[in-house]
Structure to design on (149 residues):
């Protein structure tokens, strides 16, 4: 258990960490949605594509888990991305009953085109933090995620 944060200047309790995390998540998602919309994808589709960029050839179930969506949402998303030519499905050689989802060259090109604007968004988010604190922020986010996993 951690110490309670001190009251704010107005005497009120500061917002909870859960509230602050959710507020940041919603703002990041909104800004990301603005960035990817001209490319014809959603922020959730972008997330799935970046997961495949790091770990290509996932099952739909694993991609759904890593992209923070339900299996049904992922099924719909994969169909839409496949129709756009951004992903493809192929049989898993180790388990012929399983389909793996892979990023296509068009999917990689789309991500390459978005890398600059998305990088600028991340830079804007951490602009006020000293470099040392950016590393600590990344570790803290990772550690807090692991604690709840």
């Amino acid at each position: 258990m951690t110490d309670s944060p001190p009251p704010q200047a107005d005497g009120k309790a500061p917002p909870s960490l859960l509230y602050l995390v959710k507020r940041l998540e919603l703002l990041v998602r909104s800004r990301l949605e603005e960035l990817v919309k001209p490319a014809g994808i959603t922020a959730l589709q972008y997330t799935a594509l970046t997961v495949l960029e790091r770990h290509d050839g996932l099952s739909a179930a694993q991609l759904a888990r890593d992209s923070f969506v339900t299996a049904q949402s992922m099924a719909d998303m994969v169909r839409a991305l496949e129709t756009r030519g951004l992903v493809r499905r192929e049989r898993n050689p180790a388990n012929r009953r399983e389909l793996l989802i892979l990023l296509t060259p068009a999917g990689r090109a789309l991500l390459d085109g978005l890398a600059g604007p998305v990088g600028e968004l991340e830079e804007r988010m951490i602009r006020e933090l000293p470099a040392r604190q950016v590393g600590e922020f990344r570790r803290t986010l990772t550690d807090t995620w692991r604690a709840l996993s």
